[in-house]
Amino acid sequence: MERRNTDIWFTEYQTKHLRLGLSIKSVLANIQTPYQHLLVVDTDQYGRLMALDGAIQLTESDEFTYHEMLAHVALTSHPAPRRILIVGGGDGGTAREAVKHETVEEVVLVDIDQEVINASKQFFPSLSSGLEDPKVNVLVMDALEYIRGKSGKFDVVIVDSTDPVDFAEGLFREPFYRDVFRALNEGGSLVAQTESPFSDPDILTGAVSEMEKVFPIVKVFWGAMPTYPTGMWTYTIGSKVHEPGEPRGQIPPETRYYSEEIHRAAFVLPPFLEEILQGRDR
Amino acid sequence: MERRNTDIWFTEYQTKHLRLGLSIKSVLANIQTPYQHLLVVDTDQYGRLMALDGAIQLTESDEFTYHEMLAHVALTSHPAPRRILIVGGGDGGTAREAVKHETVEEVVLVDIDQEVINASKQFFPSLSSGLEDPKVNVLVMDALEYIRGKSGKFDVVIVDSTDPVDFAEGLFREPFYRDVFRALNEGGSLVAQTESPFSDPDILTGAVSEMEKVFPIVKVFWGAMPTYPTGMWTYTIGSKVHEPGEPRGQIPPETRYYSEEIHRAAFVLPPFLEEILQGRDR
């Protein structure tokens, strides 16, 4: 008789027809929060991983590419960002990056789900450190509600959201972008993660179209992100005044993906992506 | 009793701990050639797919990113490439891109495996069209043997190889690079695919180090490639004279990933990748 083997796999269904598998050592959390399903596993390939409603949010090994690109392109496009709003981002990774900018005085982080914050503090100290920074003020509530009625308060709003389903769907739509526009001061801008052009081009073009109804300048940029579907991830900036392709603020220290040169290069889109964007509703 | 479901999945083990799954409609070829295992399946997500020895070589939907970046960066770095050697690339995708350059007079394609060529002609007409071009001369033999003793014959040598295992391993080593150097004329250059910095940094740094023993100018560039491990793919150029970061030849028409601006942007490496390269043996 042959010796038997066992292994344990975490599987993400990135689309109905595409899945990513990661062998795991253990399941650290597997709970239903009031808002979503939260899973934390320890993978062999990428270290600890958090998934929400079945979608990988981060792994210890590659989260730096996403969090750096989401935070630093918008923050460095602004000459001196002082007050920042992070919508979602309860893991703390984006806040950790935001406070690297010396001009930043206050970061308000609004996440709807206390359990995400708790899980990050328990299992991802290298991310949740961002939540402990004295400049960071964490609010547990619906960001759609928080932002309504705010006026001229922020320099940069960063939407660090899950995919646009259920409660996160509104974060990809005009009414929210209009509220964000009002909440921004004169030189303000919004940045959001806007999915992969290979697997979800409609979400990207939808977000861009909705943002263009509100912001005079809208630009898409991209970066590598291994554990997100297809590994090619887009981000979209809506800006009132500042052209986002050019870094003008201080370049943050201690980055592993972002640099001044990467900032500029990230706005160079392959022709197929330009075509996807040109084909959107306008 | 509940209604049962079935589905069929192709699974690639990208590492021991990481796998990519694609649901498939059918298996079109599943054979052992004299050199490797060859699989062709029809996937729901990406169209037809070819795998060699378990590694995805191409899918109909995303092969353009790989073949364009492999061919056009090196070819456009040369002011007027006329004679090209493709090592491997029996599917024809790289040849299809190479003949887009008007200056190109002859493409010699040397692949060891006739079955790869046959499978491409049967199942991937949009790639094998590259093999039918009158400028393309296909030789079925070991490229290591072909190149030995050639002198001053080619402007650009493109290594479109499988991963460096078994018969392909020699394609990542100094003796082969030395033969290529001799086979190139004065302004010549070599380009090779050199794997992902996330999943196989050692292959990348190994190839760069070996190339640096032979070529005075060695540069790494990168691009997105969804169905290759981690989606972030590197390529390395060894050049005798021309700085590869700057396009100087004619920009090829009808590209979907490559452009003059992407050419320059592809040489901008994230700091973590610069660090990997700085840590290599020298």
Could you please describe the fold and organization of this structure?
2 copies of one chain form a homodimer. The model of chain A has no long low-confidence stretch (mean pLDDT 96). Chain A has 9 helices and 12 strands. Helices cover 29% and strands 32% of the residues of chain A. Chain A folds into 2 domains: 51 residues, Spermidine synthase, tetramerisation domain (Spermidine Synthase, Chain: A, domain 2, Roll), CATH 2.30.140; 216 residues, 3-Layer(aba) Sandwich (Rossmann fold), CATH 3.40.50. By secondary structure, chain A is an alpha/beta fold. Chain A starts with 8 loop residues before the first strand and ends with a helix. In chain A, the strands form 2 sheets. The first copy, chain A, has a 7-stranded mixed beta sheet with strand order 8-7-6-9-10-12-11, sandwiched between helices. In chain A, helix 3 packs across helix 4. At the A-B interface, strand 1, strand 2, helix 8 and helix 9 of A face strand 1, strand 2, helix 8 and helix 9 of B.
Average pLDDT of chain A, to the nearest integer?
96
The quaternary organization reads as homodimer
Overall, the morphology of chain A is globular
**SSE pattern of chain A:** EEEEEHEHEHHEHEHEHEEHH
* Most residues in contact: chain pair: A-B, 40 and 40 residues
Strand content of chain A: 25-35%
Q: What composes the largest sheet of chain A?
A: 7 strands, mixed
The CATH class of the largest domain in chain A is identified as: Alpha Beta
Question: Percent range for helical residues of chain A?
Answer: 25-40%
